[in-house]
Write a structure and sequence with these properties.
By secondary structure, the chain is mainly beta. The protein has one helix and 18 strands.
Length: 192
C-alpha cells in the first residue's frame, strides 16, 4: 500500500523512527503519554537495524532519533511491514494539529438533511466513513491523530479550530482516488 502523512498538506511516506539507545523502530501516532506506537515486524526490524549498523541509516544532526520514510508499507497484526508493490489501498498517517487553544476532529465528507426544530440543516455523517478504516489512534493535547487505510473513492474531512497562522486551512477534504491522495482545503460537499 502506498503510504502518506498529512500535516498541513499530504506528502508521500510514513515516518518510522527509533531512539539511538533503544533501536526499536516504530511509527508513533499522537504525542506524549496518550500516543500509540506501532512496531515493525521482527523481520523488518532486523532489516532496519542492519541498515543502521552498516551506516545506511544515520541519526539526524543533533538528534537522538534515527528516522526513515517508507513509501510503501503493509499492516499485519498491528505491525508495520515493508511492501514493494503498490496496491489501490493506501495508508495515511494524519498528524495535523489544531491551532493554539483549539480542537481537532474528523467527519465524513458526505452530509444528510436533519430536521432541527422547524428547519432542515445539513449535518456531516460520522467518522470513519465507508472505505476508511482506522488502524490506530493516538492523542495530542487538542485531538486525535490516526493511522488509517483508505479504499479508492474514500474521503473524509479534518476540522481544526484555534489560533493558527493566517493562511492555515481550518478544514481539509481528504480523498484517495486509488492512485493519488488529495488533501484539499476547499470545501467539497456530497449529499447522501
Amino acid at each position: 500500500m502506498r503510504a502518506f502523512t498529512i500535516r498541513e498538506t499530504a506528502t508521500q511516506g510514513l515516518r518510522v523512527c527509533a531512539h539511538v539507545n533503544e533501536l526499536n523502530p516504530y511509527v508513533r501516532i499522537g504525542e506524549g503519554e496518550k500516543s500509540q506506537q506501532l512496531p515493525l515486524s521482527k523481520f523488518h526490524r532486523d532489516v532496519f537495524l542492519e541498515a543502521v549498523e552498516t551506516g545506511v541509516l544515520q541519526r539526524g544532526l543533533g538528534s537522538d532519533f534515527i528516522e526513515v520514510y517508507l513509501d510503501h508499507v503493509a499492516i499485519n497484526q498491528q505491525k508495520i511491514c515493508f511492501e514493494s508493490d503498490s496496491k489501490n489501498v493506501c495508508v495515511v498517517h494524519v498528524e495535523t494539529a489544531a491551532g493554539e487553544d483549539g480542537h481537532l476532529w474528523y467527519t465524513a465528507s458526505s452530509f444528510n438533511d436533519v430536521l432541527v426544530g422547524n428547519s432542515v440543516e445539513m449535518k456531516p455523517n460520522s467518522f470513519p466513513p465507508p472505505g476508511v478504516k482506522v488502524i490506530c489512534t493516538g492523542y495530542t493535547g487538542n485531538g486525535a491523530n490516526h493511522l488509517l487505510t483508505m479504499l479508492p473513492g474514500a474521503r473524509f474531512q479534518i476540522h481544526r479550530t484555534g489560533v493558527m497562522p493566517k493562511d492555515a486551512p481550518r478544514r481539509f477534504n481528504v480523498t484517495w482516488t486509488g492512485s493519488k491522495l488529495f488533501c484539499d482545503p476547499k470545501i467539497q460537499i456530497a449529499k447522501d
